[in-house]
Design goal:
The structure holds two protein chains of two kinds. By secondary structure, chain A is α+β, with helices and mostly antiparallel strands. Chain A has ten helices and twelve strands. By secondary structure, chain B is α+β, with helices and mostly antiparallel strands. Chain B starts with 7 loop residues before the first strand and ends with a helix. Classes of the chains: A alpha+beta, B alpha+beta. Chains A and B meet through β2, α2 and α3 of A and β2, β3, β4 and β5 of B.
């Protein structure tokens, strides 16, 4: 007959993967399953927007006091889209990877924007470690003349001394009828580029709106007015806070941005960075404090 | 506590296998990507009843692989220290 202390001990015992562990250890190991499931999408080096890859977003928790990190497909899908095929057609037609921060609530023609409802009710933050954009340089012809054909040089752009940064996002929980599961889909805000990004993303002269931690909190957790939200969404990070380098063109297939020098490529002009002025530089205060 | 390892590679069953370490809920987790589209494996070190340590998979179900790969990871980290 087992001793009473043995019984007590056994009561506190569980099996995890066939191993005898304490109940506390069992709970801890079991509790890891969910965050671990969410881990792989944090580990991807480069997200290719055009395959609607899963990425990490922060959404307010149910009690609105904290936030949760969840998975979303990059490429916003509105609720009225009924099937996965329609969703992909919609994304290809309207390119909903990004939203124009200028059109958060109102479009150029004065009508209500398609983003307005999400901007009011479904704001999130997109976590990023860096973005890849291509610089377009015209090919040179045999006589030394510039040709229309462009050569693309991809750059990885990140923030100095910051592993992660936050982009203002809008998300929608969309029911995928084929799986019967809800899927989060997301777009992040873009704004006018700063001087460095104007040289790198020289075909569009746009860049993601990169938020300070305070603005990220305000965007996600508070209830700012429409005017304030529009201001936050247009945030322009100053050139001096960015770090960048050229990367191998294979980043779309390897999903890794591998630094690579292109000897024929002229350097980015950074002589102006200390005097750069931007209309929506909400990083100014932070720069002053740091200085 | 030991610093997180930058991503590294081990040889498992004759193939190069990518390992990434992360810290989740204060636990060290190893995320293992096999070649040939084999399902990724996540493992950690669990503590048994007698405080003995053992490699285990998260979620449950791949104990054998966890033990095999875990030993290789431990050897990699030990060799690096030398």
């Amino acid at each position: 007959m087992p001793h009473i202390s043995e019984i007590k001990k056994n009561k506190r015992m569980c099996y995890y993967n066939g191993q005898r562990v304490t109940r506390a250890e069992y709970i801890e190991l079991k509790g890891l399953a969910k965050p671990v499931r969410n881990y792989p999408f944090l580990n991807v080096g480069v997200h290719n927007g055009f395959n609607y890859a899963p990425c990490a977003i922060l959404v307010p928790s149910e009690d609105n006091k904290d936030f949760d990190i969840v998975q979303a497909e990059w490429g916003y899908v509105p609720g009225f889209v009924k099937t996965r095929a329609e969703a992909n057609i919609f994304r290809a037609k309207y390119t909903t990877l990004n939203f124009k921060s200028e059109n958060l609530f109102v479009k150029e023609d004065g009508k209500r924007s398609m983003w307005a409802d999400a901007a009011k009710n479904r704001r999130c933050l997109v976590l990023s470690t860096g973005i890849v954009e291509s610089r377009h340089i015209p090919k040179i012809g045999k006589k030394g003349q510039e040709l229309k054909e462009m050569i693309k040089y991809p750059y990885q752009v990140g923030l100095k001394d910051q592993e992660y940064f936050y982009l203002p996002g809008l998300y929608n929980e969309w029911l995928d009828p084929e799986t019967g599961q809800f899927v989060n889909t997301v777009a992040f805000g873009i704004t006018d580029s700063n001087a460095v990004m104007s040289q790198i993303h020289n075909s569009k002269k746009r860049m993601p709106s990169i938020l300070t931690e305070d603005l990220a909190w305000e965007w996600l957790m508070e209830k700012p007015t429409e005017e304030r939200l529009s201001q936050i969404a247009r945030t322009q990070i100053p050139s001096r806070l960015l770090e960048f380098c050229t990367v191998d063109r294979n980043y779309r297939t390897t999903l890794e941005a591998t630094p690579l020098e292109y000897p024929e490529l002229a350097a980015i002009d950074t002589t102006f960075v200390d005097t750069e002025e931007l209309k929506f530089n909400h990083w100014q205060e932070l720069q002053t404090v740091k200085a | 506590m030991r610093e997180l390892e930058p991503p590294f590679e081990i040889e498992y069953k004759g193939a190069v296998t990518k390992v990434t370490e992360a810290e989740i809920k204060s636990r060290r987790i190893f995320y293992i990507q096999f070649p040939d589209n084999m399902k990724v494996l996540t493992i950690t070190v669990g503590k048994g009843l007698g405080d003995e340590k053992f490699w285990t998979s998260i979620p449950e179900g791949r104990q054998e692989e966890a033990e095999e790969v875990g030993k290789l990871i431990a050897a990699y980290i030990r060799n690096k220290k030398k």
